[in-house]
Design a protein that fits this description.
The complex is a heterodimer of chains A (about 425) and B (about 475). In chain A, the strands form four sheets. Chain A has an eight-stranded antiparallel β-sheet. A five-stranded antiparallel β-sheet of chain A has the order 5-6-10-8-9, sandwiched between helices. In chain A, strands 1-2-4-3 form a four-stranded mixed β-sheet, with helices on one face. Chain A contains 13 helices and 19 strands. In chain A, a hairpin with a 4-residue loop joins strand 8 and strand 9. The two termini of chain A are about 35 Å apart. Chain B has about 475 residues and is of the alpha+beta class. Helices cover about 35% and strands about 20% of the residues of chain B. In chain B, the strands form four sheets. In chain B, strands 12, 13, 14, 15, 16, 17, 18 and 19 form an eight-stranded antiparallel β-sheet that branches. Chain B has a five-stranded antiparallel β-sheet with strand order 5-6-10-8-9. Classes of the chains: A alpha+beta (about 425), B alpha+beta (about 475).
Amino acid sequence: MAVISDTRSALTSACAVVREGLAADAVAGIVPAYVASPASTSEAAALMRAASAHDLAVVPRGAGTGFGWGLPGSRCDLVVDMQAMDQVLEHASGDLVARVQAGVTLGQLSSVLGMAGQQLALDAPAEATVGGVVSTGTAGPRRFRYGAPRDLLIGITAVRADGVIARSGGKVVKNVAGYDIGKLLAGSQGTLALITEATFRLHPVPPSAAWVTAEFGPLGRAAAAAGVAAAAGSALVPSAVELDWSGSMLRMGVLLEGTAAGVAERVKQMSSVLASLGASLTVAVADVPVRWWDQVPASGSPAVVVRVTFWVSALGEVLEAIAASGSDAEVRPAVSGPAGAGMLYACLDPGTEAAAAARFVATLRERVAGPRGGVVVLAAPPAVLEAVEAYRNVPGAALMRAVKDQFDPGNRMFPGRMAGVI
Amino acid sequence: MTAAIDALVPAMLDICGRGNVITDPLELRTYECDGLTSHRTVPALVVLPGSAGEVAAVVAECARAGVPFVARGSGTGLSGGALPHQDGVLIVMSRMRRILEIDPVSRRAVVEPGVTNLSVSKAAAPFGLFYAPDPSSQVVCSVGGNVAENSGGAHCLKHGFTVHHVMGLEIVTPAGELTWLGDGTGVVTGYDLLGAFTGSEGTLGIVTKIVVKLMPLPEVVHTLLAAYATTSEGGQAVSDIIGAGIVPAAIEMMDALSIEAAEAAVHCNYPSGAGAVLIVELDGPAAEVEAELSLVRSLCEEAGATEIRAADDPAERAVIWAGRKSAFAAVGRISPDFIVQDGVVPRTSLGAVLARIASLSASAGIRVANVFHAGDGNLHPLVLYDDSVPGEPEAAEELSGAILDACLEHGGSITGEHGVGVDKSRYMPKMFSADDLDTMQLLRCAFDPASLCNPGKVFPTPRLCGEVPGHRRGVHPAVAAGQAEIF
């Protein structure tokens, strides 16, 4: 008991808001002993020093929207809840740059930036936090044009596992001074350091946007692949090239953004490109994504989410492989995602038996895995993860382990989250 | 030549072949510097491997012998990133210059590191594609060097830097092992080592293959030149264009002195008497660019342009660009010696920083010609001096440093695209804390624990990789035991 109260008093003297973990705070079924909410980078640093001194396994948490994607983790003593760090520190609209605390939500940021006609060009849930989105590398349809968080992040402040505060980058878009630690932390799932602040390059909100939707028959996979390639390689500069395929429905969508007159003209041109492939077209005009485009399956809802990545010239083969593996395993995956950017999600219903899901993943890997893409299990029940590896043959994995050892020699930052890679 | 190098020569001859190992002192001098000619070091040995396997074997030999090594592409870098190590091996990548594959449907090219930047776009052009990063030296600079430096160029305002266009790298680690970072898809799995490696200035390993993203050639490109009485009027036009929600492909500015130099060198025929020239390039779908062009034109006029010229065909555009592209070399016409500086400020601070540079220049009695990527606040002040005048080189160097201080005071950076190299490592502590630098070195230690890969670059002081973070005391045991050396 003395040890526990020592730990507790060390945490409380480091951070004003510390409470005991509750069932709702559980990470992978493990209820953390403590949940702390730092209000500043320096408080977060003091907290991390205390956690280091008491050998606590630390799990950084934003709004928790992305928790269900990624491996569950193996140890959790302290959850660091970043939601109290919710300040937009600086919006330099003339420079198209914003510096924010990690707990700012995307919705909150969007309303601040929107007043100046600007945006952080990432599609992620409005309730998700900046720190969470950067840590998970979340990007939706518009990653085709704007990239992922790593592409928009220009500066970062983080607290290392040993409590040292480190910054990299800055608040100018063009900057090559020093190593880009932001790139390393983006997508690292909280396993290297605790992100406390991020600085982003912004984009103007285009005055107009429209989706061109093309429907293909259920067997029109080759035509759909050709449509995606044609749209993605078009000089009409689409912002997103998505594919959506479930059951008998197979369709693609192309987002065009720009001036009202320009978008109207490009919609016509894009429509004729796709019509020449025999697609039946519906042109939807909207300034927000058509409902299904942003339905990248919400974390936690489907039983199994598999991410397939590929070179776009292989999309036709990838679709055939998904169909064949689906019928081998007797499952009906719902497939959607930014196909023009070389990525699709294949989701299986919550009721899917573990053996069938595992078979789907294993056979899909046999068919599509190679040096130019791969199959990663983003979310799955434990029974599935016992049967198939979440990651396989990740290039550079040995170097990734070396990086992890340098940043977190005690393996205390979200242990188990990236097992299979590091 | 040191004993360690002597002992390496037979293995290097075995690996690379007789004609590709240079030991002759005169020939070695060819490689004594890169584009930053103020720093010179003759390498102990030069090798020119012809394949990834040969690079790996060369590096493995160096690692075994504990000999430092430095990779070099075309040698156009401006921060001394490819400056050789006097007791080390210089690995020259220029024999590895093949374009291995173009996949037009995936919009990818696979190239060797020695291939020149422009030749990638030339090879992609028949497919209606191009490689976007375009540093001014693109005719000669190598893509491998671009990866090391995370090179930019005039068009990175809209299209991004090298890091946004590199989708996969085959590298030789400092231990001599071949591995891939990224798989060409553009989607990261695990840690983004591809992103962290790009721009690491040759300190984390040597690139042997590069998968780059290609982009569709724009439907139309319009270039507009606007002349102003002062740079602050030109700067107002830049702010107005950005404020209107337009992201041009490029916005460049030159001041009176750099216009004078360009005129002398290439007779670019810019409007005479102009205090500043602004070049704005717009590219994209015809349906968007025509409207943007008329808006940009009227914004330029409202900001007080004395003359506006427009060009929409490649030949006319080349005429407008000629003066800008020649600017660095052109100042040689108006000054025997000059320093090319590379600082960055937030775009909205451009006016204040230019004013500061003018006053620093006046009080030092040293002329400064300004050429800059106005859209992203990347300044290239050219500090003009005469090496033969006592005191001038030192005064120029001091002024050049003071310009960087001004950039940092405004929240900017000491380098936007030329890199830190040997030239600016001493300024790193002004921009980053000791803890920031220490954290960067954790990455270095993961890749290169023996500190053999391009040592002495980027960081003012090396970190010994066996140390426990935060507990540095006394002499490192590896040094004490004679197993490591601080380079």
